Amino acid sequence: MKTNNKTNQKLQNSAIALMNLVLFFSASEKAEAQKKANIIGIDHVGINVPDMNQAIGFFTDVLGFSPVTTLGPIPLDDAWKKTNHMQAATGPVTIKMIQAGTGANIELFEYKDNKGSTKHPGGDDIGASHIAFYIDDIKQSVDYLKSKGVQFLGEPFLMPSGDTEGESWVYFLTPWGSKLELVSYPNGKGYEKNKPTTLLWSPKNPLGKSNVPENHQDILSESAIHSLVETHLTIWNEKDVKKRESLMNEVYTDTIEMIDTHLIAKGHSEINGFIDGLHKKNPNSRFSHIKAIDFNHNIARLYWQNGPSEKPDATTGMDLFIFENGKVSRLYVFVDNKK
């Protein structure tokens, strides 16, 4: 049971904290891979259609979407076709971008005199894909689409347990045979009950708000947060490794992450080692407040200075704390540039 609790701790965090992180963090504080890729989100999903007019009619008249931009017909040279694994005799391409409600756009491609395969990939074929549309009432949507002659591949299925508990979904086909999906989870998904650190984006909830009621978020009192932050300062000023570890057990979760501009330290051991290195490098320096601690639900900010008694502000910066289950789960360290 203890092991399960430790595993769950990494998934638990306040959705309110996630919303506030947008205000506090730049790309340099995000995960290293995403920072390097500089990916913000999904702009569009592209699909090929055999007949552009048919596709536009379906997305517009049946689904209520809006075509916005058009390109083409654009002739494709042999080099382009070879690079993009296309048949040499395929003709020009026409492209239309469709605004599909709240979420990613849909980009439609129609190739004139298309010499590529006209067979849709099977569900287990490599490259098979589908687009899922969120709706609030799946029965209403299914009834409406059936009245428009849309073919469904079965009936809506309600997920009974697991991470997707509470989600209903069903597949349906476009007039040209592409598979699409309706999905609905008006009361959220099962995984959200554990207050995960990361929430899946949803078109019904674009800011990432949790479906867990706020009174279940275990918001710490200001006095509790103040005590934890003060003990955090004590940890960073403590020179004894074992004493620091004992205090860390009181203040930090087992899976705490410390994110600095130049490194990410995970767990008590790595952070303890980092602090030990600071003491060895600057044995006479201490951390202290610059001003009072700021609070915002399960987030706090501490503006600090570090240095010897003769120059206590040799280095200044700010720590931003994310709390879960009564402890610090993430610590973002901002060090001011030296003048």
Task: Explain the overall architecture.
It is a single chain. The chain folds into 2 domains: 38-215, Roll (2,3-Dihydroxybiphenyl 1,2-Dioxygenase, domain 1), CATH 3.10.180.10; 222-335, Nuclear Transport Factor 2, Chain: A. Helices cover 28% and strands 28% of the residues. The protein is built from 9 helices and 16 strands. Strands 10, 11, 12, 13, 14, 15 and 16 form a 7-stranded mixed sheet that branches. Strand 14 (299-307) and strand 15 (315-324) form a beta hairpin. It is elongated, with a radius of gyration of 27 Å.
Key terms for this structure?
single chain, 339 residues, alpha+beta, 2,3-Dihydroxybiphenyl 1,2-Dioxygenase, domain 1, Nuclear Transport Factor 2, Chain: A, 7-stranded mixed β-sheet, 5-stranded mixed β-sheet, 16 strands, elongated, VOC family protein
The gist of it:
The chain is an alpha+beta fold. 28% of the residues lie in helices and 28% in strands. The chain has 2 domains: 38-215, 2,3-Dihydroxybiphenyl 1,2-Dioxygenase, domain 1; 222-335, Nuclear Transport Factor 2, Chain: A (Roll), CATH 3.10.450.50.
Give the topology, please.
Elements: H1 2-11, H2 15-24, H3 32-37, E1 44-48, H4 52-62, E2 66-74, H5 78-83, E3 93-99, E4 105-111, E5 131-134, H6 138-147, E6 151-152, E7 157-158, E8 168-173, E9 179-184, H7 222-237, H8 241-251, E10 252-259, E11 264-266, H9 267-281, E12 286-289, E13 294-296, E14 299-307, E15 315-324, E16 327-335
Parallel strand pairs: 1-4, 5-9, 10-16
Antiparallel strand pairs: 2-3, 3-4, 6-8, 7-8, 8-9, 10-11, 12-14, 13-14, 14-15, 15-16
